[in-house]
Amino acid sequence: MIPSTTRTTLAAASIRPSTHHSCRCYTSCLPLIKRKIYDRPLFRLLHTARESLKDDTPFRKALKDAAKKDKKEKREHLNRPSNPAKLRGPHVDNWELTVGIEIHAELNTVQKLFSGAATSVNQAPNTHVALFDMAFPGSQPHFQTQTLIPALRAALALNCDIQYRSSFDRKHYFYQDQPTGYQITQYYEPFARDGYITLYPHDFPPGSAHPNEPVTIGIKQVQMEQDTAKTIQQPPSTHLLDFNRVSHPLIEIITLPQIHDPTTAAVCVRKIQAILKAVNAATAGMELGGLRADVNVSIRPRDKQLTDYQHSYSGVTGLGQRTEIKNLASLKAVEDAIIAERDRQIELLEGGGVVEGETRGWTLGNKSTKRLRGKEGEIDYRYMPDPDIPPIFVDPELVDHLRSTLPRLSDESVHILTNGNQYNLTPKDASTLLALDDGERLDYYYDVVERLRARFAAEPAMEARIGKSAGNWVLMELGGLVRNEEWSSTRVPSEQLASIISHVLRKTITGRTAKTLLSMKYDGDERPVDQIIADENMLVRPLSDREYEELAKGLLEEKADMVRDIVEKNQFKKVKWFVGQMMARSAEGTVEPDKAEEVLRTLLPLPREN
Amino acid sequence: MSRLQHATRQLDNIFKHASLRAVVSTADRTSLLSAVESADNVSRLSEIDCRSLHGRIILVKDNICTTQLPTTAASGILKNFTSPYDATVVKLLQDAGALIAGKTNMDEFGMGSHNIHSYHGPTTMGRIGVEERSAGGSSGGSAVAVATDQCWTALGTDTGGSVRLPAAYTGTFGFKPSYGLLSRWGVIAYANSLDTVGILGNDVDSIEATFDILNVYDSKDPTSLNLSTRSRLSPRKISSSSLRIGIPLDYNISTLSSTVREAWKHSLQRLQERGHSLHTVRLPATQHALSAYYVLAPAEASSNLARYDGVRYGSRAKGVDGTPESVLYAKTRGEGFGSEVQRRILLGAFSLSAQAIDNYFIQAQQVRRLVQQDFNRVFQTPNVLVDGSTHSENEGVDVLLCPTAPTLAPQLSEVENQDPIQAYMNDVFTVPASLAGLPAISVPVDIAEKDRQPKLKAEDVRENAGMQIIGQYGDDKLVLDVARELTEATRS
């Protein structure tokens, strides 16, 4: 547990403009707050994804800045107690926040959940619609078995128990985007239960109030369900309906109310999103509307003596009345909405009021959540088992197979990248690599490392340096070039970067030359690296023995006074100055300091050991 | 007589009996007759099976989708609807050479017992000029069409008795096969877990010939019985000369009319005379079956009918519908649905609501399970759908014989102002087999001479009561055979 003072300060900090770094790391590593979330239901165009791809430099800068700020804040905190009441208004310290999250993610499938129609993202409206998708009279659902596979992968990655038997229910509500008048979901018998997700310190944005120990959040269940149609509003009164999205398979992930901090909630959503991508269960994140979250928020006094808090949700007891905030479409919205709702509830309770069980909405940029409907307006979904859809039975062998072939998850990746001698990256670099370009940068990095290992197969001594060096080049040097452009792993093919790095490691080109080479490749020079080096005569050419001697002689004559200091006053350290001068006066990389010193000592002459 | 002669007469009858409102839309007469003629030519050349459907005139209930004719389900909300696809059963009939001559009237979406809740107006049974009796519902149009020789056979749908009850009232045969044998793809859902396509005809042979064509697995219907389970169903016919016939004592209720009770006794006696043995059995859950049915069916109906909003198809209310705060079709649904449909939607919405589901929907499902267990206990053959099915205590029965309805067809004037509960009571004998998904057929049995109405007797109109034969799941062929046996026994 984090000391509450730190937590509250930092939690409150995230709503202050001066502490935007903790948010900026989201924006730089995940393209979020630039999205206009209110556009989300209307357009889900793939190409918008690219515009927001960021290079790593601002991210790394953010990391550094945030780390600095973190230190500074800690210092200030020690020196003078801050004035939380002034910063936060309500007495945040006195209350414990409890949050549960429901995440809806579009599954990566070829077919819809209950018809043979293909799934689609931005095809012409109403071109992928089967009879049942339109709820034609007499049509029936056909569960597409293969949609289970990504759902199972997701549930396994979230450490859930896969249920041998699960079934589908109808959740009724009227809306024009819901052709049957009900959504088919898994209410009574979900396909996965009792999972968990672990948040490690490296999952938290730098500068945020991250806990020192890993935080585990229970997953109550994961269920499959269908998406609705898209409504495109054409003011003042036209609603256009596109049924392509109807019955696109979704999974809903429900966490236990075990989150007590707004940042942790955002980190949890972000991590679930990353896991879904890592196991290829979902393709699009929040930025494309492929994932959205509802949060339920309650507070209770830290002083547990009070007995007014007897609500129980998903088996967690002693909680305050909760409210639900629906349809949050970005990580920032998740965090900000929770903060705003927490503060609203504190203000309400401290003012002698009562929290109503209600559904609220949140618009990015707003200071407060907005009431959508109260308990009396709550929809009774009249859940009913779907009589047309037989239950699903999942063969345990299939589960075992999927478990054994599950792609590597990010926690495991960070562990491998930072521990042992394999890659030798810092946790900071490792999580940066993982967060960039939907994991493409990490794949590229692995590729470069593999190619370097092949080149140095006969030199085990070099192996230890490969991982770190490749990390530096992929993140810093190449990252610096990519900066504001779209990432593409083919722009500088991994083999070519490996070639550049191997020349650097073998000292056959200078660091400066290597950077030049990288820029040339990045800007489209199609010649292989080795050919550019040959064509442009870029190889380091060491001085001959004679050239060393001539260079040294000239210097010693030029600085006769210093020679005297060395020879007569035994100021041997001044030899190093001459070494430095020899290096400075020759082309980069052509003078080896050891060799230069040897030549100088021979000429002076001096014994070896002084 | 050639099939062309039959067809011509039946098509003439459709026209002649238009006032009964049995048929609500018809195909083009000329092209139908030319199709029959070519079928006739084929049959003359190759002497085809008399059971063949080639050139047969078949009418289809208006809740079964057809591309050639509108499909309204007798509802205002679908009054102008034509389906973009054919139901599997329609395709199968056409592929077998049958001709779909028209669509038959019904209670809206299958909800009703007297065929009075129709957008097209009520179907009536008029055997003599002045008579206006209930045709039964909801497949009343199909029953009257068969009774008045407007077709060879007609398709209906049976959710809680909607094929058997009108058959009993109109003196025709009405067969509800085991649930899952006939495809529901293209059959407009009333209550999916109960809806069964049924067949009405003037004899068992025509019904069986039609059933044989339709009794195939359909991958489009997720509730269609799969091939491996089908292969486990015994193709049981009457094997021994002596059947064990069950008399369910719980069906001998106080409201059973004496005429029907007489006919029941008469049927049992005649079967006994032919060497079959009679055995009384108890089906104690029967008394709760009707209430369970009227919880479950409306619950599913309220869900199934949620799609009718006039947005994608169907009719919409005139003028602006919906406010920014509400859905865009409150008015449309209010105008499009008839009163009985609205009543059942509300009933279903209530029994599924959070405060009522435990006491209504869940309880009703439990009763449904008890009803199934009752049947499994009395039948000799185990139910193939139940693992380790409880076998009958001693020797079980082959089939059950009981009345289809407590009374003969009531006067229309009587039922039009009836309390809805009274109408629901007519389904008391048909609902149990529906809840258990069992095959059942209603067979017309002549009533006793003393019970006949003088007016009808004077016109020489046969009067009969419907007797229901219920078999174990999958014993459809046995049920049809026993129907044949009962017909012979009571007519000889």
From TrEMBL, chain A:
Enzyme class label: ligase
Record domain Asn/Gln amidotransferase: where: 443-604
Name by which UniProt lists this protein: Glutamyl-tRNA(Gln) amidotransferase subunit B, mitochondrial
Alphabetized InterPro entries for the sequence: Asn/Gln-tRNA_amidoTrfase_suB/E, Asn/Gln-tRNA_Trfase_suB/E_cat, Asn/Gln_amidotransferase, Asn/Gln_tRNA_amidoTrase-B-like, GatB, GatB_Yqey_C_2, Gln-tRNA_amidoTrfase_suB_CS, Gln_synth/guanido_kin_cat_dom
EC numbers, comma separated: 6.3.5.-
Pfam family, one: GatB_Yqey
Location within or outside the cell: Mitochondrion
One annotated GO molecular function: ATP binding
Keywords tagged on the record: ATP-binding, Ligase, Mitochondrion, Nucleotide-binding, Protein biosynthesis
Family from the record: Belongs to the GatB/GatE family. GatB subfamily.
Function as written in the Swiss-Prot or TrEMBL entry: Allows the formation of correctly charged Gln-tRNA(Gln) through the transamidation of misacylated Glu-tRNA(Gln) in the mitochondria. The reaction takes place in the presence of glutamine and ATP through an activated gamma-phospho-Glu-tRNA(Gln).
PANTHER family referenced in this protein's UniProt entry, alphabetically: GLUTAMYL-TRNA GLN AMIDOTRANSFERASE SUBUNIT B MITOCHONDRIAL AND PROKARYOTIC PET112-RELATED, GLUTAMYL-TRNA(GLN) AMIDOTRANSFERASE SUBUNIT B, MITOCHONDRIAL
From TrEMBL, chain B:
Record GO terms (molecular function): ATP binding; glutaminyl-tRNA synthase (glutamine-hydrolyzing) activity; transferase activity
Record's subcellular location: Mitochondrion
GO process annotations (BP): glutaminyl-tRNAGln biosynthesis via transamidation; mitochondrial translation
Record-linked InterPro entries: Amidase, Amidase_CS, Amidase_dom, AS_sf, GatA
UniProt keyword list: ATP-binding, Ligase, Mitochondrion, Nucleotide-binding, Protein biosynthesis, Transferase
One cellular component term from this protein's GO annotations in UniProt: mitochondrion
Domain Amidase: 20-480
Record keyword Ribosomal protein present: no
Positions annotated as active site in the UniProt record: 61 (charge relay system), 138 (charge relay system), 162 (acyl-ester intermediate)
Enzyme class per UniProt: ligase
Enzyme Commission number: 6.3.5.7
Catalysis performed (reactions): L-glutamyl-tRNA(Gln) + L-glutamine + ATP + H2O = L-glutaminyl-tRNA(Gln) + L-glutamate + ADP + phosphate + H(+)
HAMAP family per the UniProt record, alphabetical: GatA
Annotated PANTHER family: GLUTAMYL-TRNA(GLN) AMIDOTRANSFERASE SUBUNIT A, MITOCHONDRIAL, TRANSAMIDASE
Functional description taken from the UniProt entry: Allows the formation of correctly charged Gln-tRNA(Gln) through the transamidation of misacylated Glu-tRNA(Gln) in the mitochondria. The reaction takes place in the presence of glutamine and ATP through an activated gamma-phospho-Glu-tRNA(Gln).
UniProt similarity note: Belongs to the amidase family. GatA subfamily.
Self-association and partners: Subunit of the heterotrimeric GatCAB amidotransferase (AdT) complex, composed of A, B and C subunits.
Protein name: Glutamyl-tRNA(Gln) amidotransferase subunit A, mitochondrial
Lineage: Eukaryota, Fungi, Dikarya, Ascomycota, Pezizomycotina
